[in-house]
Design goal:
Blueprint (H helix, E strand, L loop, with lengths): L6 H4 L6 E2 H18 L3 E3 L8 E2 L2 E7 L13 H7 L11 E4 L2 E6 L3 E9 L3 H8 L4 H10 L3 E4 L2 E8 L4 E8 L4 H5 L4 H6 L4 H9 L16 H8 L2 H9 L12 H4 L2 H22 L2 H8 L3 H15 L8 H19 L1
Parallel strand pairs: 4-7
Antiparallel strand pairs: 1-3, 2-4, 5-6, 6-7, 8-9, 9-10
Helix pairs in contact: 14-15
Length: 333
């Protein structure tokens, strides 16, 4: 996804593909995947695009989650075991899970994105139409939502937003379009030009141009998006004179979030109280343990006494520490 995955490993920079080369290579790789019994999906691209840095192909992991450790039919392993069918050696293969890349014909980068079967359609939609997935994700970010490659999530922040718990809202690729009041049929039919795609993003009733300015992005996204040609073209295209402060609360449309968040907060506070009840420095001072042994003993105390640690007195804590310490030492001898 970008065309430079194998540069560091093989010292070979991939070549860009013309539209004709793109379609030929994609067809040939599809045929090999079919022969290997690997299900796969394509992603749509803006139709005015005439050259490509790489080819993205979604490969579907059909393994049974209940027995996933008992079999080896992971799509990427099958591809690597049959790398000769692609006319290359494993020197031209690199795996950055969940994305693996090959240099087909020694010059064209093909990326295989492995996804679970129940997330494949969402990933396909997210990666389609070039940067559209990123732009839609930026639109819903202010509502504490994340449009990720594998699903739409609600982000619950804790500890002054230093920690986050995600709740999956949907793996239906159309859900984010419904929320943003965007035309699903248009999304499925695709876009002839980038400007057509840019206009589509701006049609959302929640579109706010301020969200896309580099100064309003975190450092990670700012560094990444400054390198993205399409993102920069989008910034040059949209009208920053328009403002939109219309709010959206996911917890209204998905009321089950309220119960899930409440349950999480209760459990989080319980675990925090237990963690704070067993100070590492004090356990180290009382037992003389350090490093891995200290960590193992603290874990033993928490598991053994659990809720009894909430509101524990000093005498009780000393007893718990000493009892577990003796048990730990006997297990080490």
């Amino acid at each position: 996804m970008g065309g430079t995955a194998l540069l560091a490993k093989a010292g070979i920079e991939s070549q860009r593909l013309t539209l004709e080369e793109f379609e030929r290579v994609k067809s040939e790789v599809h045929a090999i995947l079919d022969e290997l019994g690997i299900r796969h999906l394509d992603v749509q691209f803006i139709r005015e695009k005439k050259d490509f840095g790489d080819i993205d192909i979604i490969v579907i992991d059909d393994r049974d989650p209940e027995t996933i450790a008992l079999n080896n039919n992971l799509p990427i392993k099958i591809i690597l075991d049959n790398i000769d069918k692609f006319g290359i050696t494993d020197e031209l293969f690199i795996n950055n899970n969940p994305v693996a890349s090959i240099l087909y014909e020694g010059k064209y980068q093909v990326d295989f994105i492995t996804v679970a079967a129940d997330r494949a359609k969402y990933t396909q939609a997210y990666l389609s139409h070039n940067d559209l997935g990123n732009l839609l994700g930026r639109t819903v970010k202010r509502f504490n939502m994340t449009h990720a490659m594998d699903g739409l999530y609600y982000d619950h922040y804790i500890n002054n937003r230093t920690q986050r718990q995600r709740f999956l809202i949907s793996t239906d690729p159309h859900e984010i379009l419904r929320i943003l009041n965007l035309d699903i049929a248009k999304f499925e039919s695709g876009f002839d030009t980038y400007k057509e795609m840019f206009d589509y993003v701006q049609k959302s009733k929640y579109f706010n141009p301020e969200l896309f300015k580099f100064e309003n992005l975190n450092n990670r996204n700012r560094v990444r998006d400054k390198k993205r040609k399409v993102y920069n073209e989008f910034l040059n295209y949209i009208d920053f004179n328009k403002t939109n402060e219309l709010e959206y609360d996911p917890k209204v449309d998905y009321p089950w979030l309220n119960d899930s968040i409440a349950e999480f907060d209760i459990e989080y506070d319980r675990r925090k109280a237990i963690r704070e009840a067993v100070p590492g420095a004090y356990v180290m001072e009382r037992t003389g343990l350090t490093g891995k042994d200290l960590g193992s003993l603290i874990d033993m105390i928490k598991v053994t006494y659990d809720n009894a640690l909430i509101g524990v007195t000093q005498d009780q804590l000393n007893y718990y520490i000493d009892t577990c310490h003796n048990t730990y030492k006997s297990g080490q001898s």
